[in-house]
Amino acid sequence: MDETLLMIPGPTRVAPRVLKAMSENIINHRSALFGEILTETNQMMSEVFQTENQSYLITGSGTAAMEAALANTISKGDRVLNIVGGKFGQRFMQITETHKGIPVQLEVEWGHGVNPDDVRYIMEEEEDIKAVTIVHNETSTGVTNPIDEVGKIMQDYDALYIVDTVSSLGGDDVFVDGYGIDICVTGSQKCLAAPPGMAAITLSDDAWDVVDKTDNQTYYLNLKKYKKSGDATPPETPYTPAVSLIYAMQEALRVIMEEGLEERVLRHKLAAKATQNGVTALGLDLFAQNEVSSNTVTSVKMPEGITDKELRGTMRERYRIELAGGQDHLKGNVFRIGHMGNVTHREIISTIAALEMTLQGLGLDLEIGEGVAAVADTYLTE
Ligand code: PLP
Q1: Does the ipTM exceed 0.90?
Q2: Are residues 180 and 58 part of one domain?
Q3: How far away, in angstroms, is 227 Cα from ligand 1 center?
Q4: N or C: which end of the chain has fewer CB within 10 A?
Q5: Burial zone of 335 (CB within 10 Å; 0-12 exposed, 13-18 middle, 19+ buried)
């Protein structure tokens, strides 16, 4: 078994009790017992989304829920405002195109968060925007977008507000009802610390009205079917679900409930702060602008003269710590430290200590201990 420390922005390590839950034998997915499991899991999912609305699990990765959100609400020729500041913002735009919508792109410089005034400006200027998509935590850049402020603006318009919280739910504040989010999507394998392979979605009454009036463009992801089966007694899923992954989701969500959502978000905040302080104490620069730095992943500019292969290769081979590289045009220019899911001070201290040794070994002029001291200082004073 590979015991490499996984400091990537998902998938993340799962707790042993979650692994154990997954090894339970398969039961009939159309039984009262499975209905009980699904009821508890869906209810906890809604608690984590902080919504009164029902949540539905989809067997598929986070992208399945992103696609379900748009495929069920837009028709050919519908205009969708896609806020794009990284790879996952782009994905929403590509899904819009796939389903024959017309993307109206609000391009945000990578490393920056969207300015809510720009959203208001476009909503005023453009007619007939049917939906707005935004990525809460842009994993590719380490930026968190102000979904609360954009949500306030969206109250003044009829367009649906669709939010991707794949890499933030369970690790940052997401108040689906409080922010006026119409459709919120997430994935299992990041801050929720469940294995990859499940997605979750929740819709407001307004969103269901739109779904009811929209010509469905997808078979497997037809949300009306998820609602019909999910709201039945006992609840079911429309097709055979990944039963073992639902056992795992149930257990992972129980872990979250036991920790407490607020506590969990605080733990992520602290991990982010400690990581940012550790990295900057070593003289490295963060890629994301300070005020929008993510709670769950820190994106760092590659130090001059050091390659991605050298840095991440040494971290992996010598120190057995896996970091993530940059995506698209950031490949080779940044590396990313994921600090989501079950990550605590232990993993952050180890990662920054290994990073110091790696960088010094690669010839960077730094004082061993400065990064770790900054991490310790953060944990001792915050
Ligand atoms: N949205 C965000 C913000 C992500 O970070 C990811 C995955 O990294 C996705 C969507 C896509 O999720 P998946 O890979 O589970 O389909």
Answers
A1: yes
A2: yes
A3: 23
A4: N
A5: buried
